[in-house]
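SEVERITY: medium
COMPONENT: batch folding queue
REPORTER: lab tech (J.R.)

DESCRIPTION
The queue accepted two submissions in a row. Attaching both inputs and their returned structure tokens so the on-call engineer can compare them side by side.

ATTACHMENT 1
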Amino acid sequence: MSARRWRLAAAAAAAVVSTACGSCAGDGRIPVVIYSPHGRDQLTLLEHAFEAGRPDVDVRWLDMGSQEVLDRLRFERVNPQADVWFGGPTTIFDRGLRDSILAPYRPAWARRVDPRGVGPDDAYFPVYRTPAIIAFNSRLVPRSKAPHDWDDVLAPRWRDKVLIRDPVASGTMRAIWGLMILRGMRTPGDTAPGMRWLRRLDGQTRSYTLNPAILDQRLARGEGLVTLWDLPDILISRAKGMPFDYVFPRSGTVVIDDAIALVRGAPHPDAARAFIDYVGSAEAQLLAARKVYRLPARKGLSPDSVPDWVAEVERDMVVARVDWATLARETTGWMSYWDRHVRGSGATER
């Protein structure tokens, strides 16, 4: 993106941040600016819950894809505007760490999560576990006829019936793409089988949507019948009455450690740390599980307090083994190759 377009995008995004919390500017509260892919429902929920306990703090947020968060934080590195990066795979947080845009902070709940999801030198911590699923329009596709594994999506009956969130901007989709490439490797570094699979999927794909809202709308209207996406967004949309159902791929799915971090040079670090402490607290973890279908990363929550759907997910999903270190190291190159050489080329695979 050119410098001019970046300036225009930054100005537009700043306007969104300033209005995201309504008419709350200039009231003497401490602003905390959050960049996040978690969507309006979850961000509004946690904004209001946190502010109820901290009336001196004004939470402001900007909702965008994980890759867009990273790009924006890189652009603002010399003059940070955000206080907290909230949401996205730990693999993309690793890239932020290499770019020196994260500040170490060990939250109050640090010992309650799996240390394998914690960034070097406490650069980031996991707050949720986000499974990828195969979702479908349940009004038009009976559950018995839906694809039940990744390869099923390549069947002729789904040609031109698949909708995909644009993988370049989405951490979730990058993780799914990474799983497809890793599982196809016969020798280290051999991405050809995985790219062939993604090219075949491209041949099935009706369109790549710019954001999750458009994906929901098109899937609900039946413009596509099947998608690969994350569980929480599908459950939220279904709770709103959209005709969605899902399955966990039989062969195993990628389960993302969804992280949070303090931004290096955050304008309001103390309030930012308080927000991070809150997000991983038992109260906030249970609130997110009950209201926006987030699978808690925090261990030791009372079984009587955790909603039933959490136990069902833990029972039904098969977690694929993923080389996260390789994924973190190679994803950028893989996505660049896919974008230049695979996107739009799938018709040749039919």
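ATTACHMENT 2
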Amino acid sequence: MTARDGRDPRELAAMGLDTHLEDKLLRRKYVSTMFDILAPGYDAFTQLFSFGMDRGWKALLVREGSRRAARAPCIVDLACGTGDLGIDLAERTGATLVLGLDLSPQMLAAARVRLRNNGTTLLLVACDMLELCLRENRVDVVSIGYGLRNTADLGQGLIEIARVLKPGGILLNLDFYKPAGRVWRELFLWYMWNAGRLAGWLWHREPIVYGYLAPSIRRYVTMPQFEDELARAGFTVEWRASRLGGGIGLHVARLVTKPPETRPG
């Protein structure tokens, strides 16, 4: 069975999940391919899979971030997907400029469809968040929904975000995290693995399309570990919220010091 955009989801299954998640170069290709497959119908699926909670999480993050943002800010929405987070921020803050950056061409195509129906101006560019196509100190707000977990290097991703942010700029981030408690962690990941594989089979007739979620979370950090990475990159957390026992985290963090351009070692 092929995906709705004509890309065969068996292409993803043939890549080998563990091999591609462990290799930084291969991971980029894996993530891009996966989101090209997921793009058609992605918004509807996200709402269904989260039992409608995703919309509320994003609305809460936008509300808290907007309260702390500069007036009429320049916003960059990373891993922008179909553009929902960037559009909501633009409307809430009266942004002068909003850029939507994503690795997946099909996600950017889906965002263009949303923009035609919405009327919001959002400039869309294909770009890797580990090598942002932006100059230093140009952005007031960076927003990310479920993006940093998919990068090959969390620390370098945060350093790149800090590079393009103006001093005092803010980062809004929503993502899955590895729950800190061992018992709940295993229950949460068990559910995500089985529910994800079932959803992948029902949606695309290929379990690994959404089965990726649990392994990616297991390889990721806990919320406290993420906040340690934020501090190392020069951010201080101004607001946070935890959902699903630490499986979902929302953060608004302000850039207070500029980090080195590359990680040591």
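NOTES FROM REPORTER
Strands lie at 74-78, 97-102, 123-126, 139-145, 165-176, 235-243, 248-255.
No errors were logged for either attachment.
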